[in-house]
Amino acid sequence: CHDSSPLLDDRLGLRVSDIDPDFPLDRWLSHWNDLKTKRSLIIESRHRTRDGRVFPVEITANYFEYGGHGYNLALVRDITERLEAEEKIRALNQQLIKAQENERNRIAGYLHDHVGQDLSSLKIGLETLFDHRHEGPAKMETRIRELSKILQNSITAVRDLSYDLHPPGMDQLGLVRTVNQFCE
Q: Structure pTM?
């Protein structure tokens, strides 16, 4: 190539150890030897500029033969932005996992504090319902109404929790319209 770019000029005459501060030379040689049989490989590494700045790169290398000679062609791409984006995705995934765990804890607390308590009260009330049968039908009827109210509270709590988790309109309207409707 007769045209020379500043990047090529910057790289001419450098050894691999000048470009990659941490990659052992024997590992580079192993990769280049593998390239002859595999014909193509991708390596993530780091490069150092003449001014000492180090940045991550992806090297895509290919081996080909032409005119009885073997050649290596390597393309080097700065992957700083990609790695930063991947880190942001990892951080967002961690936030998502934390939000899911918080939601699970909220649901567990709600079930324990509301539904669990109501069902326990209902169970005890039913177990002791006939212990007071000598008090007469009017007292028994009042007691049954109290137990029915506890049961209705549990049904309402489960329905409300279910609605909070998956509003009925979600399937028909989609997430955005459902959220807007929910906010209104």
A: 0.55
